[in-house]
Amino acid sequence: MSAGRRGRGGRPGDAAPAAGRGVRDRGAVTAEFAVGMVAVAAVLVAVLAVGAATVVRLTCLDAARTAARVAALGESDGEVVDAARRVLGARGGDVRVQREGRWVTVAVSAPFITWGTGLRAAASATAWTEP
Which InterPro entries match (predicted)? Predict the structure, then answer.
């Protein structure tokens, strides 16, 4: 092979370096990949946190609706709180029962991230009590 067809390394088939690119560009792809992976990881954590919040919010909503139905049947506040806690399961949470005349409102909140951030999901349901 002729010397003009050989690249920088002197091996046949090696291409000559592109104009304007030198030794200082080495490792740029690795650095860009590292920055990109951090961004991808941050987005993944955000998506998982939103998913966890949604699941806990729906569980709180189910607990509040169930407890409001139990309260509408004329059960005591203790029974209402027990019904909500049963739906919440092991995650626990706060249950508040408020009665105004024939209306009863049950508010439920529970933590959705266990990393000590104090973030909570909440829901409430209102029902008319049976005579």
Answer: Rv3655c/TadE
